[in-house]
Amino acid sequence: MKTTPIEQLVASVHGTLYCGDSSTVVTSVSTDTRTIGAGSAFFALKGENFDAHDFLEKAVAAGAAAIVVERVPEGVDFGSAAIVVVQDSLTALQSFAAWYIRQLDVEVVGITGSNGKTSTKDFTRAVLGERFKVHSTKGNLNNHIGLPLSVLSAEEDDEVCVFEMGMNHPGEIAPLCQIAKPRIGIITNIGTAHIEYMGSREAIAEEKGALARSLPADGVLVVSAACDYADYFRDHTRARIMVVGNGRGEIRAEELKMDSSGSEFMLVADGEDAIRVKLPVVGRHMVANALLAAGVGRTLGMNIQEIATGLNRASLTSGRLRFFESGGVTIFDDTYNANPESMKAAIETLAELKVSGSAHRYVVLGKMGELGVHVADAYREVGSLAAERGISVLSFGDDARGISSAAAERGADAVHFNTIDAAADWLQSTCASGDAVLFKGSRAAAMERVMDKAFPTNN
Fold first, then answer.
1. What's the family (predicted)?
2. Per-residue pLDDT tens digits for 13-59
């Protein structure tokens, strides 16, 4: 974070300096007393089950230079810390981030969509890193609290900031755009993630479209040629639309080949010679995400050689279709999260993977969250697709039983287990050298526990 005097913090959050030296500077921001360091500004947030105002003494002891509060508790010794009083601590955090990003000379890229935000962010960071100093979202800091923290961790010499923008309820993307003010946007796709709260894909497109609507007239929105809402976004943005995709678009992938080690294709951009790319991850959907990143690189003046080099060097966040081998079995770890579209994409990826004639493909699937009344249909579609593609199914956890039931009804080999030990034992006794196994489920399903138990060489 760029060093910031407390007097500027106070002004940006429309607060009042209760006590302390206004010339003191802050060098980082935290909302968790466990991550405070000397020079931090601590924002005391309140949630349904916690109130950080109860832990202000811990913030002082940890070395906070400034503490932003809604009220000043009695009996707390604040020492030399500056105390800033505001009406709402969360609003203050967001206001500080909105002010801060405007102090930096950076291009801002915003990424939203139902699937693939993090892998697209990883690809974008890798591409842009070939020419620019890039700051990007860490972990899952992409919501109304996480995005401001991501913004406030940018450094003064960063040249491009790449921010994920997540949501699960209406009205959440527009405020994130107001904070970060991206000039370049990516909408990865429109699926059914969070449909329990959104109601329909149309409503999801409307919400994700807030990014398109926020872009300035000199901005660029990069979308996939496969997105069936591309024309909708074109009609709801002032920015130029760049369409990219497998086999079509301004930037495209041709001659795609996949094996267990990754995806290889010719990267084609209008006006330049094609160049071969080898992504360290399998899947047509991953290639689509890489092309979105390539579109951003192209927008910022990068040539196709730089873009290809960045993609070749890309490293994805853990749990996103990385692969490893255990006892001759190829394991695909896609455990980070899941929704119907990403599960189907993973199944299609596994189906395309070449295995020896006697080998088998298995998917080990856990529950998907936030589907509401659509959950039964979603599980039926996923299980049926696996059966159609000749893939054996193991569902894990009682909530996911509908997946294996649907697969079995369509004639697939399908089993269900409710305990880690039972699922792991079945996999160890069933899988043989040459087989391929893919693990996927929502974060709450913690599918990595089954994976690590069944194939412990990953530890």
1. Belongs to the MurCDEF family. MurF subfamily.
2. 999 999 999 989 999 999 999 999 999 999 999 988 889 999 999 99
Of 167, 181, 243, nearest to 214 by C-alpha is 181
CA distance 192 to 219: 27
Is 116 labeled as ligand-binding?
yes
CATH number, domain 4-87, options 3.90.1150.10, 2.130.10.10, 3.40.1390.10, 3.20.10.10: 3.40.1390.10
Q: What is the CATH number of domain 322-458?
A: 3.90.190.20
For residue 319, say whether it is annotated as part of any ligand binding site.
no
Per-residue pLDDT reduced to its tens digit, 71-85? 999 989 999 999 999
Query: What is the fold of 104-312?
Result: UDP-N-acetylmuramoyl-L-alanine:D-glutamate ligase (3.40.1190)
- DSSP conformation letters of 156-224: TT--EEEEE---SSTT-HHHHHHHH--SEEEE-----TTHHHH-SHHHHHHHHHHHHHHS-TT-EEEEE
Q: Is the pLDDT of residue 400 over 90?
A: yes
Do the annotations mark residue 115 as ligand-binding? yes
Q: What is the pLDDT of residue 357?
A: 82
Taken in order 363, 366, 367, 369, the sign of the CA dihedral is negative
How far CA 317 is from CA of 285, 322, 416, in Å, comes to 16, 9, 29
Each domain of the chain, given as residue ranges in start order, spans 4-87, 104-312, 322-458
The pTM of this model reads: 0.88
pLDDT score at 459: 46
The neighbouring-strand residues paired with 394 are 364, 415
The DSSP-derived string for 262-274 is: EEEEEEEETTS--
**Residue environment code for 187-223, b if the CB has 16+ CB neighbours within 10 A, otherwise e:** bbbbbbbbbbebeeeeebbbbbbbbbbbbeeebbbbb
pLDDT above 90: residue 209: yes
Instruction: Decide if 403 contacts 365 (C-beta within 8 A).
Output: yes
Residues 382-401 as b or e (16 or more Cβ within 10 Å = b): bbbbbbebebbbbbbbebbb
Could you tell me the sign of the dihedral formed by the alpha carbons of 62, 65, 71, 75, in that order? Answer: positive
